[in-house]
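pasting for ref
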Amino acid sequence: MKVLFLLPYPIGKAPSQRFRVENLLPLLDEAGISYALHPFMDDATWQVLYKGGSLLQKARGIAGGFFRRLKTILFEARQYDRIFIHREASPLGPPVFEWILKKIFRKKIIFDFDDAIWIPNTSSGNKIAAAFKAHWKTRYICRWSYRVSAGNDFLCRYAIQSGAASVVKIPTVVDMERRYNQVKEHHTGSITIGWTGSHSTLKYLDDLIPVIREVQKELDCTFLVIADKKPDLPLTDWHFIPWDPATEIEDLLRIDVGVMPLTADPWSEGKCGFKLIQYLSLGIPAVASPVGVNKDIIDHGVNGYLADSRETWLSALRQLISDTGHRTATGMAGYEKMTREYSVASLRASFLSLFK
């Protein structure tokens, strides 16, 4: 079998693509399935995509992406047995490429997504592009696909309601054998509360900052942010580390207690809890909002805590910060659950079933 991967981003850059596609490629190697990776965007465009200005460079980059994608579809796609599309074949416009693959070339499409991408979610970095996005196309891609791979139950339900013929739940996972293969050694003394994510999710920290301030008045702790953009936080004791894949594990292991605040809305329901998966896979206990898949990942009081108010956030953080033994046991429970349910090894059969 030969599989063509149509990807939105350059290799090794975007978390969604890294952990839902690139992370799982060794499973295809083991199964003797050959594949080719075709990103839409090149590295130069990725470097300026979410920065202000550079409109001409962005436009050239997107135009170049459309040209390369059209060339791939027309002259290369027919030699492959399956076409794996992560999120969409092109970031702007209607699903023309998907339509060609399905309706003209009669290709079997495997469609993978891990966000509620049918819901407009405009940020300051993509206001112009948002006017050209066709969010409605997600339901058509689901309908045209041979199989749909969705990151949680909420996304699976949407795919089924859209008319998908076969839907497989594929959670976002980490490689606990090759990469996420360390466990946090918890200690006494000053504790680090940590958050990691992309610039688009920094907004979720706004409601948590007052809680962090209050905890810092009571206990010896600092706050750490690992992201691709430095935020402006109204805290006196906090640190920022630019996200770097080369030091990703080392930086995460600086965290003693991970946090994942969310707002209760449909967009958040579509999230796959990847921050929690990263924390727990390294033996770092977490506190999270009880929204969407967070409720499946966190076993309250066992591998972390679910918190939906100022009081419950404070209570959970106090327990984990003040008790080293409890923090160690809670982190180990998270590590064991990730090994069973959210590791590459645990996903092998489900992922390979997409290609049968």
